[in-house]
Amino acid sequence: MFVDIHTHNQTSSAFPMIINLNIEDVQRIFDSEVKGMYYYGLHPWYVNENSEKEILCLENLLSKDKIVCVGECGLDKNCKVSLPIQNELFRKQIELSEKYHKPLIIHCVGCFNELFDLRYELNPKQLWIIHGFRGKPELASQALKSGCALSFGEHFNEASVRLTPIERLFVETDESNISIEKIYSNIANIKNCSPEQLTAGENLFRQIIVER
Predict the structure, then answer these.
(1) Which residues does 71 contact at the CB level (< 8 Å), separation at least 6?
(2) Intra-chain end-to-end CA distance of the chain, in Å
(3) Residues forming beta bridges with residue 128, ordered by sequence position
(4) Is 8 helix (H, G, I), strand (E, B) or coil?
(5) Nearest CA to 175 among 107, 117, 97, 77?
(6) Cα 101 to Cα 125: distance, rounded to the nearest angstrom
């Protein structure tokens, strides 16, 4: 199965997708009979000092089977929200990931040292996946050494894909119009393997199904 670990596309697909919801989508999804796997979190672009209500909403959602991951959440040096506020809200979402035993899908721009420091400090047990990773191999090595997994989309650094172990390599479409099958194929070419051998997403999908 070519599992799409991170997408904003809510159209039907022949393969499993884990769909990132925004706040406008949440109530509609839970008021409907729509089936699927979703995740929700406070993106660093949209947090502020008054985000406690959203954190409470997130915690309530995490008790429901449809929400299978926390995110995307994280740190971004390019957004207008101050890093102390981002850090505080990210920590709270890490706590919820641990409390509800759900993987964390991470958005990180320009704050990788802060991200790695948090991981070493908190020593989380849940899987951390850095989504949309485009960094150079030196950064990929640091991320992997810290215990994170990496998810690659339409655009990626070939050397970083090459050094990422298959068991910690996830694939996503994010907001791309390219099919998940094509992205799997592109990455498999770099890894010199068949697309079917890229099984990290499938393994996580099966684990989620069991735990639901």
Answers:
(1) 20, 39, 40, 41, 93, 104, 105, 106, 107, 131
(2) 19
(3) 104
(4) coil
(5) 107
(6) 8
Place of tokens 């769909």: 19
Instruction: Transcribe 115-181 into DSSP letters.
Output: HHHHHHHH---S-EEETT----HHHHHHHHHHT-EEEE-SS--HHHHHHS-GGGEEE--BT-SS-HH
Helix (H) or strand (E) holding 19: strand 17-20
Residue 13's domain spans which residues?
A: 4-211
| CA–CA distance, 143 with 169 (Å, rounded to integer) | 12
Q: Tokens 């339409």, residue?
A: 154
pLDDT digits (tens, 9 = 90+) for 114-139: 999 999 999 999 999 999 999 999 99
Q: What is the CATH number of the domain that holds 192?
A: 3.20.20.140
Q: Is 204 exposed, middle or buried (0-12, 13-18, 19+ CB in 10 A)?
A: buried
State the total domains in the chain: 1
Q: Are 187 and 159 in contact (CB under 8 A)?
A: no
Per-residue pLDDT of 154-206, as tens digits, reads 999 999 999 999 999 999 999 998 999 999 999 999 999 999 999 999 999 98
